[in-house]
Amino acid sequence: MNAHIITIGDEILIGQTLNSNAADIGNKLVDIQIFVKKASIVADDETEIINEFKDCWDKNDLIIVTGGLGPTHDDVTRQCVVKFFNTELVEDQEVLDDVKKIFEKRGRKIDKINECQALVPKIATPIRNILGTAPGFYIEKDDKVFVVLPGVPAEMNYMMESFLIPKLKEKVGEIKSYSLRSNLLTTGIPESLLYKRLGNLKELLDGAKLAFLPNQFGVKMRITVKAETEILAKNKLLEIEQKIRGKVGRYIYSRTEETLEEVVGRLLTERELTISLAESCTGGLLSNLLTNVPGASKYFERGIISYGNSSKIEILKVKKQTLEKFGAVSEEVAIQMAEGVRNISKTNIGLSITGIMGPTGATTDKPVGLVYIGFCDDKTSTAKKFVFGEDRIINKHRTTQAALELIRRYILGIE
Amino acid sequence: MNAHIITIGDEILIGQTLNSNAADIGNKLVDIQIFVKKASIVADDETEIINEFKDCWDKNDLIIVTGGLGPTHDDVTRQCVVKFFNTELVEDQEVLDDVKKIFEKRGRKIDKINECQALVPKIATPIRNILGTAPGFYIEKDDKVFVVLPGVPAEMNYMMESFLIPKLKEKVGEIKSYSLRSNLLTTGIPESLLYKRLGNLKELLDGAKLAFLPNQFGVKMRITVKAETEILAKNKLLEIEQKIRGKVGRYIYSRTEETLEEVVGRLLTERELTISLAESCTGGLLSNLLTNVPGASKYFERGIISYGNSSKIEILKVKKQTLEKFGAVSEEVAIQMAEGVRNISKTNIGLSITGIMGPTGATTDKPVGLVYIGFCDDKTSTAKKFVFGEDRIINKHRTTQAALELIRRYILGIE
Hints:
Two copies of one chain form a homodimer.
Chain A: E1 3-8, H1 10-13, H2 20-31, E2 36-42, H3 46-59, E3 62-66, H4 77-84, E4 89-91, H5 93-106, H6 112-115, E5 119-121, E6 125-127, E7 136-141, E8 144-149, H7 153-172, E9 178-186, H8 191-197, H9 201-205, E10 209-215, E11 218-227, H10 230-248, E12 252-255, H11 260-270, E13 275-279, H12 285-290, E14 300-306, H13 309-314, H14 320-326, H15 331-345, E15 349-355, E16 370-376, E17 381-387, H16 392-412
Parallel strand pairs in A: 1-2, 1-3, 3-8, 13-14, 13-15
Antiparallel strand pairs in A: 4-5, 6-7, 7-8, 9-11, 9-12, 10-11, 15-16, 16-17
């Protein structure tokens, strides 16, 4: 099944909005063995949109369009659908009731603009929306499927899951060849070194595919295998993963899409360990990441954001002389911060972060990007030095990534 | 100038990576009055890529390609360029020196795989890379421009700014018609109500364009005007903005792309106010957002993440009886947290957040999504109740957005 995703919106072309919808749709289609070969983004322009519909209609069996379904004048997708399929708009009672219900729930009065959302192209089956007022459209014609979904991610995702995926699954029918993927997430090793350590790839992969996807925090290895049944594919995948782990296992922190904070949260929970955090330059980002994981209260009770020196002294009991002698960004202060937060929190682990994120704050001997991460348990206290780059936000993220990896390796006993 | 952006990579089609490059490029081109009409995403597949090159070559004057330039076997963009232009690879000494320098700087040994990055299509001018090892390619042929940039965002952005934008600016020459845009960011009012409040749009806009871009935190209004000179366009833009502000000004927190935390940071700095934060359920996200703003140390010295009850009692001096009587998620505890953090921090403002982010933690009378934001200055203490949705991460973000808007309205004296 040839599939194409069309995203509509000037805001995406001019860089004001990230195209998360195309990514989400692509991801969900993989689960039912539909692989998108191409996607496109088109401006809010009737001619451009209809041209793209024509072009995609000829080349594909499945076309999914998102965006441009809102109630205001700049949303033109619905009228493009009407023109392209040479159909007309008809009011759908069920959709109208849905729209009214949404307004009732929000305690707001409905007006004409909103009621117009119930006008649906005659050729289409409306896809109901419980999160917003714009319905989606499902059209089957000439053995092709053409679907239009709202641009608001939550609404689009709801319709994909509640309606489109089950519908397409039925249409696809029995699957003759299974393609399965897995991701091994690494951190702390560059792409080319990873590639080299794996050695002879042909031998290692035995027909499977391997892709390297680097970002600023690490390299993701994506393995793709094909087999006749799901079981065979799963076994082949596991076999290749084992071989890769044998060569670069210590750098792999996760399989599938588990984030590093989820891995750390899971490990802390499994080992029944508690942690407290003292963050200076990261300003709460590490605590925020750890508390994104449901159930974080099992291992995390408090964090101190000691952005200035007063709170380092008053709350964390860092010595004034240490601050004066070595400066706030130093190994010595990092250690005292970690010990301080562990003492007042009575946790197994105390972790601290102090550094210079930029753009200002550098001194002659301390550049932007300099970071110390302090770490202590009931036996020892240490601090590790890092030098990251120039960008404030990226530095905050690289620092927290390094801190999380430090916790992971500590728990697993990896050097 | 017809421009098209091609992003290459399976990872984008299957939803593992967001297409931030196409957005960044589109955004930068707007500054030099080049408007992208269409963009596409293509799989890591030679045939698909070359087909897309052909298709775009016929329809456009400027084609910008990103991705697939890495050193590993799954990066095929360079060989597609060679085939499409019927050219060959030649070693470029300058690029080779750049690659060697990068390895020296990182203290790593260079090998054959990395040296291959210096092979450049003969038809192209290499675009030098100081952040990574893959050079970009700039090709001019038949009065068309074809550019290939690496997929790593920082490297792509560096080449856009240091090389491509100046080069294209020169090529575009004198601009005959100026198109300018601005964004008015609103929060706390739904799209259809905003639309209604603006009244007769034709009269209001007088030929300009207005787009409504809603997301879960608010609605962005993008105004686009066209005029013969930059000054005329600017004046027209300001005139329309004034009219819009007259109708819905209290909901507008920002012009241009300033985020709400940047607005709040700027206001706190301008008024020389200081703030301290006590976060429970948001786990440090608000402190993180406020410290993303350079210069945050002027108004922010500390934050307490009191995720559990012990830290609320020990550090913030919340009364044990209050916790027992009303529960941690209550107006009373929110007020005591705000007062507590303000007392120990000696700031002008104390702000606290306590709530239930989900998926667990709800009780019979307190649902997931319930949040209290406490607020105090030297005169009064209050707490405001909110009920958000079911999603943990979205709840954290909506809560911090509401807290920031509360601070903004307090400083500006908006009811």
